[in-house]
Amino acid sequence: MARLATVFVLLGVVLFAASCAQPATGVSVEGAWIAAPLGESDSASGFAIIHNGAGADDRLVSVSSPRAGEVMLHEMNMDGGLMTMRPLEGGLRVPARGDAELAPNGAHLMFMGMESALVMGETVPVVLQFEQAGVVSVDFTVSDHAPTADAHKTHD
Amino acid sequence: MLDALRRHRVLLFGVAFAALAGYAALTIIKRSPPSRQIATGPVKDDLARLNRGVDEITLLDDAGGPVRWGALKGRPRAIFFGFTHCPVICPVTVWELNNALDHIGTPAAQIAIQFVTLDPERDTPDALLKYFSGFDGRVDGYSGTPQAIAQIARAFEVVHRRTELENADYTIDHTPTVFLLDASGRVVDVIAYGSPPEIVEARLRALVTATPGR
User: Fold this and answer.
1) What is the pLDDT, as a whole number, of residue B70?
2) Residue B114: pLDDT band by 50, 70, 90 thresholds?
3) Whole-number Å distance between alpha carbons of B161 and B175
4) Cβ A81–B9 below 8 Å, yes or no?
5) How far apart are CA B141 and CA B213, in angstroms?
6) Which residues of chain B does A38 touch, with a Cβ-Cβ cutoff of 8 Å?
7) Alpha helix ranges (H) inside chain B
8) Would you call B21 and A79 a contact, using CB atoms and an 8 Å cutoff?
9) What pLDDT was estimated at residue B149?
10) Closest CA to B135 of B162, B176, B107, B99
């Protein structure tokens, strides 16, 4: 019986270690993409999933890219059938040991003032400034779909 | 300079948002728009009241010619409203629909994607033609007089509000729902903005199945 308990404890330790495979601290970003603009639009929107491995909340406070005149954090809200968009005041909170999502129907990045239109497949360097984690550089891919779409499928 | 512009923009957004929030609150109290029903699945009886009495309205197709709204019937359609200066909802929605149709393949060939601009001032037929030029004719844009467009939008209970920005620029907040119509022009389903790709595909697949033998 005691041996069985030991096995369970060991199993628990192994599972715990596996769940900590991500960096224990700091911020990492995955699934970063920009919806390919149509026509000759000089603006575009960007999305990603931000992981915060640290034990304290962090906050995405500003974003820039050499490819855009300005990158703003915006937020979508659905109000009685009307979808509104406004700047996200105070940045985006990324919870401790949790995720924050930049998505087409929520908080997202707005790339504005592009000198030339983004093209499908292009890689756009983006600098994310976090309150705690500091500067995180991420390449966004211009695409017609989220790279994580297939991963989501299995979760749903 | 940029900072000043940004503050100005933030202020404008704030004022506009407060106004819109007030309006939205009133709207919620008054009625439940179709896009709110999707959470629990479409209510077919309520959808049937959409797209009524507007067959004789004339819009402009992307070649600049007049087209009767009622004359667009005859095949299953996915219809949504927007404006080409829209940086998020409109491109994302077009890509989602296009990807889903690609995925479905041959059976989806009969489905038309139709976009009605809520910004006829900037979205001329020629501008719409250019905007959707990358889709090999799969997406058709429609413009028209503000009055005609307002009538069509109202028939779909699509809400739209112009919001002024700095430098004489403006944006248009609008209902982002995609409406699915059968060949007779009846609204049979809707797709909520932000639906996962498999939901978009399933709804379009069901639309094809519901309109056999055309």
Assistant:
1) 97
2) very high
3) 10
4) no
5) 26
6) 84, 90-91, 94, 131-132, 134
7) 2-30, 44-47, 89-104, 125-131, 146-155, 197-210
8) yes
9) 98
10) B99
Binary contact (A80, B27; C-beta < 8 A): yes
Question: Which 8-state DSSP code applies to residue A54?
Answer: S
Nearest to B36, CA basis, from A106, A105, A79:
A79
Identify whether the C-beta of residue B141 lies closer than 8 Å to the C-beta of residue B62: yes
For the record, the structure tokens of A96 come out as 């401790």
* ipTM computed for the complex: 0.78
Q: Hey, is the C-beta of B38 within 8 angstroms of any chain A C-beta?
A: no
Planar angle of CA B45, B49, B51, nearest 5 degrees: 135
Task: Give the closest residue to B54 by CA, choosing from B187, B165, B176.
Answer: B187
Minimal-distance CA residue of chain A relative to B129:
A39
Number of CB pairs, chain A paired with chain B, less than 8 A apart:
129
Q: Residue A116: what pLDDT? A: 87
Whether A43 sits inside 8 A of B130 (CB atoms) is: no
